[in-house]
Write a structure and sequence with these properties.
By secondary structure, the chain is an alpha/beta fold. The protein has a single domain, classed as MTH777-like (Rossmann fold), CATH 3.40.50. Helices cover about 40% and strands about 20% of the residues. The protein contains 6 helices and 8 strands, in the order βββαβαβαβαβαβα. The strands form 2 sheets. The protein has a 6-stranded parallel sheet, with helices on both faces. It has a two-stranded antiparallel sheet with strand order 1-2.
């Protein structure tokens, strides 16, 4: 994976998680976080309480995730320019995810990758109206199609 975006060094990435209703979300989060960590990029999770707990217990020893934070607190901190991230992945399976992606695209100033999944993935992808490279698979239980989509979009060096 390229460690610079628009000439800026990528030292950390934000992974934004909404409701963990679709089973493959946590698997995809841990996969991306693991690949980022292997590339030397710190990973910060921002999520709802239940999404944070699933990731916390999925990575109990902190092999993949460096920090886990409250989603609303992160949005406020980024909007107030107290925190910044050169790279952001927003996990989307419903309208709320679309809103999170649009918000992060508006306030972040970094590269935003929508990671779109679930039975309505194609419909969700069509709703994204900002310029970005989408990672998308119509999948809810089997993570392989989404992992393949992740690998197609992101070129891992590590």
């Amino acid at each position: 994976m390229e460690k610079t975006v628009n000439g800026k060094q990528i030292d950390r990435a934000l992974l934004v998680l909404g409701c963990p209703q679709v089973p493959i979300q946590t698997t995809a989060v841990l996969y991306i976080a693991g690949r980022l960590k292997k590339a030397g990029i710190r990973t910060v999770i921002a999520g709802t309480p239940s999404a944070r707990l699933l990731v916390k217990y999925g990575d109990i020893d902190g092999h993949y995730i460096d920090e886990i934070k409250d989603l609303d607190m992160i949005i406020d901190a980024v909007a107030e320019k107290k925190e910044s991230y050169p790279m952001c992945f927003v996990f989307i399976h419903n309208d709320a995810g679309i809103s999170y992606a649009a918000t992060m695209n508006s306030i972040l100033g970094g590269v935003v990758y929508p990671v779109i999944f679930g039975s309505d993935a194609e419909k969700m992808a069509e709703m994204i109206d900002f310029d970005c490279e989408k990672i998308m698979a119509v999948a809810a239980h089997n993570p392989k199609p989404l992992i393949s989509a992740i690998d197609r979009v992101l070129k891992w060096d590590a």
